[in-house]
Design a protein that fits this description.
Length: 159
């Protein structure tokens, strides 16, 4: 009699070979940055080596945006990117949050124009949820960090 062990949903598809997994995750980091890393780079002394681009609408920008970000809605990238951005400086795009692919679309548009680009995972939602300062048409704001997205009483998550 042969017994069959049920495979759980996590292991129904086996994990990748470690070499393949390393290549995949390295590639992911080539294309993505997270909110905490972007904030740390912007807060450090000196030039972070990249520019942050908010690809949302003007109404969204007015509700809140990352200080120092360039505002360039995705639809305007083909006609305005050359005037607002330096091709030699990498661009980090963001939009509302994980449920929005605007940052992905803007990153694609910039890459097609020859810019080096990364997408900021989490977007403006996680920027605000992690307690980083933001600007609105009324001035500067900051929320208390959400303990589900950022460590309590620590500078970084240790990731």
């Amino acid at each position: 009699m042969t017994t069959t062990t049920a495979v759980n949903p996590v292991l129904r598809v086996a994990p990748a070979d470690p070499t393949e997994a390393a290549a995949y995750f390295r590639a992911s980091l080539v294309f993505h940055a997270d909110v905490s890393d972007v904030a740390a780079a912007l807060a450090a002394d000196g030039d972070p080596g990249f520019v942050v681009l908010d690809s949302r609408s003007t109404a969204s920008w007015d509700q809140g945006h990352i200080p120092g970000a360039v505002h360039l809605p995705t639809a305007l990238i083909p006609e305005q990117a050359e005037q607002l951005l330096d091709r030699s400086v990498p661009v980090v795009t963001y939009c509302w949050g994980p449920g929005c692919n605007g940052a992905t679309r803007s990153a694609l548009a910039l890459a097609e124009l020859g810019f080096r680009v990364k997408e900021m995972l989490g977007g403006f939602e996680y920027w605000a949820r992690e307690g980083f300062a933001y600007e609105t048409w009324e001035g500067t704001g900051r929320r208390v960090a959400d303990p589900l997205t950022a460590p309590v009483d620590a500078e970084d998550c240790g990731c």
